[in-house]
Model the fold of this input.
Amino acid sequence: MADESKSTGHMERTLQTRHLSMIALGGTIGTGLFIASGSAISTAGPGGALVAYGIMGIMVYFLMTSLGEMATYMPLTGSFSAYSTKFVDPALGFALGWNYWFNWAITIPVDVTTAGIVMNYWLPNVPGWIFSVTVMALIFLINYLSVRSYGETEFWLALIKVVTVIVFLIVGVAIIFGIMGGKPVGLSNFHYKQAPFVGGVPAIISVFLVAGFSFQGTELVGITAGEAATPEKSVSKAIHSTFWRILLFYIFAIFVIACILPYTDKNLLNQDVSNITMSPFTIVFKRAGLAFAASAMNAVILTAVISAANSGLYASTRMLYSQAREGYAWRIFGYVNRRGIPIYALLGTMVVSLAAYATQFIGPKAYNYLIGASGLCGFIAWLGIAISHYRFRKAFLKQGHKLSELKYHATGFPFGPVFALALCIVVICGQNIDAFVKMDWQNILITYMGIPLFLILFFYYKIRYKTHLIPLDKVDLSRRTKGESYEPEDN
Done:
């Protein structure tokens, strides 16, 4: 194995503000918005969908400002996993790091499989696995070249998604006021039949769970902080826009869809990327007279899944690198080549993702179990961020520091992290209530498998190394982790 001291390179701080801003901006825009957003309206009505996404959006905003405060003070590769190790308990950092790495390593095969399905829209006679393997090779090459190649790729892929949403909102407003697509529709669908609220509180809660999955990926900006050229400026700027992008891209988009399509429209139930003609975005564009809408949206969704896979490989590689630097993984994964790439962490993650992808050819049950095991990993990571920030701020003041020393202040402390913590627990516990009602143990196992896996990791490390909750006056606030250090800019 390679020794850390023999590493010939170091992590390159080459990501610019525009890269981080667009990574943060595009982090939440994917198939959840383009395809599944309609199902939220169908389930809870236009009002219920807006309330659910609004509450979840507020929670994510608090969560990201918490991450922003820590990331600007201590921009480390590995982000919240390293913060949990330093501010809470090494066992929590160990479990969170492996949990997050596993989440993305398993999600990459899902995204590349989706890319194959999307490509079959144009080339139905070509086996989907050919496209999937091609995408896998493409994202490996992007991540292999340099961190800047990842940043540039994400910048342009995210820009395509952002432009699409902006055009959709403009076209949608034009349809609502009758400028395009015939007579104005106004707000008539908001009081159609049982609208605006359909199904009451239970329906809102069910949409609330879906909204949580839609917003996952916003924490990626914390992972990139360790390779940002000016983290104090770029990280805070990217995170500060979180609330506004959620408001614009999700709340406004759902409002536009709800105005144009009644909640009873069967097309809103579609959640299948292979049926792009039924996407709410496609339907709205067609209503405006754009004949090529389906093909254009299919291309946009292809960029979205490639972007998700690309970010997944980047995030999981950096987390595995961080785990090695903390002593939680083989030291070879902490090796960085001359181009600033943790090459063995990249190769190791790629091997696991390919193995996970191959399980679908062995049997669909094995593949479904893998996907199920990673389902709650994102929410568990959010829990870690909330707990770490609460402990960080308490320790910061306990050790005699002043808030004026922080270059970025989280919004609404301590309410923010406590609110996020409580809502994450609600989301995790409420994932599949129906399965418990029906005593469907197989469904329960698939849904909640991520929780026992996380607990096994946590207690394994805690028992083996006899770790404990770090006292606030003993919390390490130095801006370094093993093998990595950071000196802030002068004021």
